[in-house]
Amino acid sequence: MAKNPKKSRQQGGTPATVALTSAGVAFTVHSYDHDPAHPSYGEEAAEAMGVPPERVFKTLVADVDGGLTVAVVPVAGSLDLKALATAVGGKRAAMADPALAERTTGYVRGGISPLGQRKRLPTVLDASASAHATICVSAGRRGLEVELAPEDLAKLTEAVLAPIGRA
């Protein structure tokens, strides 16, 4: 019998963890006390969990030729917007308006997960993810991360793997 996603969220889950549980994917939840004064959500997560920043990935929302696209890149670097556009067959990319990204995904900035978004968006996962047995991404709120195999993340988000990160 399928779990009731609403009930799972009420018990402390997020749409991201509900999606992972529903898909039967193995994952580990990591929580930490979020410091609003920290200058970088992703670097804060890596430091708090004691995980190398190359294994912690941030979820960014970009506008590619007028449509929103999700980019998942290591927190240790930045997003190459031109490479992102190329990966999805577009010409130009720019960071999306934060309010639009929040409305579209259903998550707040600093807690946007590539999983369980309100509206499924095209997703590109940086190719460096495949060098790791597991990676960490936001679980849908600040101070909460999920660790999972990059192959599982790519499968669940229907992501394209491409070199979109810059060191």
Give the gist of this structure.
This protein is an alpha+beta fold and 167 residues long. It has 6 helices and 10 strands. Strand 2 and strand 3 form a beta hairpin.
Characterize the structure shown.
The protein has a five-stranded mixed β-sheet with strand order 5-2-3-6-9. It has a three-stranded antiparallel β-sheet with strand order 1-8-7. It has 167 residues and is α+β, with helices and mostly antiparallel strands. The relative contact order is 0.22. The N and C termini lie far apart (45 Å). Helix content is 28%, strand content 28%. The protein has helices at 5-10, 15-23, 41-49, 81-87, 98-105, 150-157; strands at residues 28-31, 57-64, 67-74, 78-79, 93-95, 123-126, 135-141, 144-148, 160-162, 165-166.
Regions with little confidence, pLDDT below 50 for 5+ residues: 1-11
Percent helix, as a range, is: 25-40%
Number of helical runs? Answer: 6
Q: Distance N terminus to C terminus?
A: 45 Å
Mean pLDDT rating: 91
Strand residues, percent: 25-35%
Sheet/helix structural class: alpha+beta
Number of strands: 10
Radius of gyration: 15 Å
